[in-house]
Amino acid sequence: MKERLEGLRVEALERLKEVSDPNALSELKVHYLGKKGQLTEILRGMGALSAEERPVIGQVANDVRGAIEAVIAEKQEAFDREETARRLRSETIDVTLPGKKRAEGLIHPLTKVTQEIEDVFLGMGYEIAEGPEVETDFFNFEALNLPKNHPARDMQDSFYLTDEILLRTHTSPVQIRAMRAANGRTPLKIICPGKVYRRDDDDATHSFMFHQIEGLVVGPNIRMSDLKGTLLQFVQAMYGKNTQIRLRPSFFPFTEPSAEVDVTCAQCGGSGCRMCKHTGWIEILGCGMVHPKVLEYGGYDPKEVTGFAFGMGVERIALLKYDIDDIRHFYNNDLRFLGQFARM
Amino acid sequence: MNVSYQWLRDYIDLTGIEAAELAEMMTRGGIEIDSVPSRNLGVTQVVAGLVKTKEKHPDADKLSVCTVDAGTGEDLQIVCGAPNVAAGLKVPVAVVGAELPGGLKIKRAKLRGVESQGMLCSAKELGINDKLLPKEQQEGLYILPADTQLGASILDVLALDDSILELDLTPNRSDCLSMLGVAYEASALTGRPLTLPEPAKELVPADERAADKIKVTIGNPELCAHYSARYIRGVKIGPSPLWMQNRLIAAGVRPISNIVDITNYVMLEYGQPLHAFDAAKVAGGAIDVRLAREGEVLVTLDGKERALEPHMLVIADAEKPIALAGVMGGLNSEVTDDTVDIVLESARFDGGSVRRTSRQLGLRSEASARFEKEVDPARVLEALDRAAVLIAKYAGGTVLDGAVEAGSASLEPVVVTIGLERINRFLGTQIPSLEVKTIWSRLGFPAVETAEAQWQVTVPSRRNGISRDVDLIEEVARLHGYDEIPTTPIEGPTTTGALTKPQAVRRELRKLLAGAGLYEAISYNVVSPARAALFPQLNGSAEGAKPIPLAMPMSEERSVLRTVLLPSLLEAAAYNQARKSNDVALFEIASVIHTAEETLTKLPTEKTRVALLLTGNRAAEAWNRKAEKVDFYDAKGILDSVFERFGLADRIGYSAAQPEHFHPGRTAELTLELAGGAVSIGYVGQLHPDLQREFDLGDTFVAELELAALYPEIDTAIKYRTLPRYPSVERDLAVVVGIETQGGALVAAIKEAVGELLESAGVFDVYTGERLGADKKSVALSTVYRHPERTLTDEEVTEAHNRVLTKLEQTFGAELRK
């Protein structure tokens, strides 16, 4: 019996050596080790053996089984490796082909700039105030110290709906509304973004409808130096830590003193370029100390409180920021234009 | 205002301060100077010369050969093509070696065989704006006065060694519409003293009194506070002196004749417009300042007949209007070559009245611009005297004794009290008292120190914008220097900045829609009536609103306020498709404006809305992806995620609707469930094919919703629900129902039939086909059952599912599809 077992080992190992595919291997496994396989066949004769012989033969049989199993396992592993390699080869793709992009849209560049500005002021403790686009003459002009015969109130320059109602020419009326709503409370710190309208002929730099953001601070001891400090903080948040501001005396009916604000040209850093007409500075803001009459119209006593205000055109900021050549692009809603503002 | 730097030096010593430097000082001080062009655009070695002889060129019809004395000691032979060249004329001569603007270098040359040792020049060739010169001077050589010194540099003769300060004045600085005003400003900035003309001292007493020649009356004193006139006898009309013409040209004013030039010169100098009448044409020697009468007409100096209206202020003689006050003189009283005696006017007219008249007639002039901003009452007489002195000097004539006046110059002086503490507290500075005192003095503002560092400041009438302490603080600030003001943080309690709920919602909405593949549009809020009339169920007209028109639109396209957003998106989609961007996905968040009033008496309603539009393909076709057309469910799906985000999904209802301009079978009205019942918030659907055709669009899906109704309902609170501990059981079923049966109704019926055990139910397939018949469809639904506290038994689920089947059968006549 021992001889038969040894013979089986030799034969099995010999045949296994020749196996070249996994099917043949599993057939051989069944043939030698299966329930009705050769090994089982031989071991059926164990019953006839003596008690002494049985363990000896059992040991031999286990050795044979172990040897065959080891070779089968080894073979199987080799076949598996090959199979995996084959599959990986067949699954290879061209990684240079374009990816599947989700259809993505974008917010409008004017919204983007507005939100950036809003965020800076939100961080500085300002609230956002809004008001109607259709305004009364009183809120749009009178309460802002533009008396009846002021040139800026000419019918030619504003879109009137009736003698007393017009499309607001600036977001400043929101300041009056916010002051009145505050009912004397200080400090009041707001910014007012929104659409405004002027009777301008549309061209590359003018639009009859555009967007403004104005700011207003009213408090018991608001100084012009606070205005400068605030604007400096704002422009450095918008344009970087090295940005500086320069105030030039100017005139607005609703502020006194008034100033135009230049910032270091972001394009050249102040050394002079095409963008800043080689001055190193770019004008982006108007500002000043709130005129006492305006404070009165807002329900404050100018002897008790002072305030500052500033305003900027969103389109102008965006035109400069993105180097856009024509303001009309903002309102055509051309996807080739809108699609250019994807970066954060 | 264009200010000649050299002219300015008449009044203030600017030694060591170049024009560009002064311009920078002024800009930093509040008078913005746009640019400082030099009057010399590149002229060298051009001198005044005399044409001694002129012969015809032997070989050229249009050329002349001239002998020219250019003061060089020997005569030059110069070939010249100008038609007005003639012997005896003095003209600019560019000698050999000279340069002209544009880089032209004058060399010895032969012209058609004749040698030329230079070039005779026109004004244009010298870089002078010849539009300001008389026609004969434009068409040929620039003829110089006979008394011009030979060989003198043309730069001196024509005062080209000069720079122009181009002032861009803010409305509060109309004082700088005069050389004297600019001189005062320069003095304040530099601290250097002023030398001003004193015309009253130069007037020579005369025997005759002007008051015996003319009478002045003011009929409307509210429109003319002060009128003064002088009578000048025996003037000789001719050209003004070249120096004066040079200065006028530098300022951009056309020289005409000595009298007119002097009135313009003094206007530029003092900011006070003047007018000269031919005394012989002033009927009755009467000057009456009054409103025009019904039916009166006046031919103004520009030769145009003007129909006068009763609100227009005129100067009239005993019979008729002879000038439009402050706007333009009349042809009927014009000074001509034959004029002998003149009446010179200097007056203060009301700015508003002048503006109204000049705007209405489209007649804007240097004079009206100054009156509109109110002239300095203190200069009315001074300017009159200054002009009288100059006329006597440069036009001969005798100035009769006295100015004839009506009204008065007197104005209460403006006195403002201010203290150092207030100034420094307001500006955040620490300016010392002495500096403030110096500033008052430099400004020429008399100031009395009433107490330590407290002043009563008298504001001169030339600075009419200053009336409050803050105005004076601005003067201190700008002369101290805005750059010197420190930057400080705001003192006082800190504040928290936060978005209001609507603001936060709009931001989130923008982010969400952009994330869903839509681009944000911003469109004009003023549209054409045709656009405003689209979508009656959205544009307010269904509730009786009408679009609000602009009183004075600039075009039909932009004439009424926007009542509905969608037409703007349709235009944008058409615009893009015309440019080959065929897949368009846009949204806009903006206000629409409605009123029920026939004519506005109060502010109309502004409602914030969101609109969206989808057309073309969902995503661009690619190597690994087929193009798929967008459909209704893309639009609806976007809205679904919006409502999901705002916690409103369970309260939004969609029901088939047929609003105008929408596809009647592919449109839903959206409703929001409120405590008092559902309210309509907008529509989502496909455009009606007719409208698609009108805009040249393919299938286009749109939605427009009111946001205001949503704001208060939006629920952003997130409440965690325990994850299920017991398994769910899924059962699918397919039913055949009538084609009209809505999926939403089937799901609702299932929910009703099962009750609490149902976790979710939904449609996963819809099938129509011949086998079912044209009026039937098969709807496949999946249902999920779960009990939160135990595992459901098969019997329970089957029982519930049977209730579903029964319900669907009873309600919709549904047949189970096996």
Automatic annotation (TrEMBL), chain A:
It holds the Pfam family Phe_tRNA-synt_N. Its main location: cytoplasm. The keyword ATP-binding applies. Keywords: Aminoacyl-tRNA synthetase, ATP-binding, Cytoplasm, Ligase, Magnesium, Metal-binding, Nucleotide-binding, Protein biosynthesis. GO terms for biological process: phenylalanyl-tRNA aminoacylation. GO terms for cellular component: cytoplasm. It catalyses: tRNA(Phe) + L-phenylalanine + ATP = L-phenylalanyl-tRNA(Phe) + AMP + diphosphate + H(+). Its cofactor is Mg(2+). GO terms for molecular function: ATP binding; catalytic activity, acting on a protein; magnesium ion binding; phenylalanine-tRNA ligase activity; transferase activity; tRNA binding. It comes from the Bacteria. Its EC number is 6.1.1.20. Mg(2+) binds at E256. It is found in: Cytoplasm. Belongs to the class-II aminoacyl-tRNA synthetase family. Phe-tRNA synthetase alpha subunit type 1 subfamily. Tetramer of two alpha and two beta subunits. HAMAP family: Phe_tRNA_synth_alpha1 (MF_00281). This is Phenylalanine--tRNA ligase alpha subunit. It comes from Cohnella fermenti. The lineage of its organism: Bacteria, Bacillati, Bacillota, Bacilli, Bacillales.
TrEMBL record, chain B:
Its EC number is 6.1.1.20. SMART domains: B3_4, B5, FDX-ACB. Mg(2+) binds at D471, E474, E475. It is found in: Cytoplasm. Residues 40-155 form the TRNA-binding domain. GO terms for molecular function: ATP binding; catalytic activity, acting on a protein; magnesium ion binding; phenylalanine-tRNA ligase activity; transferase activity; tRNA binding. Keywords: Aminoacyl-tRNA synthetase, ATP-binding, Cytoplasm, Ligase, Magnesium, Metal-binding, Nucleotide-binding, Protein biosynthesis, RNA-binding, tRNA-binding. Residues 724-817 form the FDX-ACB domain. Residues 411-487 form the B5 domain. Pfam families: B3_4, B5, FDX-ACB, tRNA_bind, tRNA_synthFbeta. One of its GO terms (biological process) is phenylalanyl-tRNA aminoacylation. GO terms for cellular component: phenylalanine-tRNA ligase complex. It catalyses: tRNA(Phe) + L-phenylalanine + ATP = L-phenylalanyl-tRNA(Phe) + AMP + diphosphate + H(+). Binds 2 magnesium ions per tetramer. It comes from the Bacteria. The keyword rRNA-binding does not apply. Transmembrane segments: none annotated. PROSITE patterns: B5, FDX_ACB, TRBD. Its cofactor is Mg(2+). InterPro entries: aa-tRNA-synth_II/BPL/LPL, B3/B4_tRNA-bd, DNA-bd_dom_put_sf, Fdx_antiC-bd, Fdx_antiC-bd_sf, NA-bd_OB-fold, Phe-tRNA-ligase_IIc_bsu, Phe-tRNA-ligase_IIc_bsu_bact. HAMAP family: Phe_tRNA_synth_beta1 (MF_00283). Tetramer of two alpha and two beta subunits. Belongs to the phenylalanyl-tRNA synthetase beta subunit family. Type 1 subfamily. This is Phenylalanine--tRNA ligase beta subunit. It comes from Cohnella fermenti.
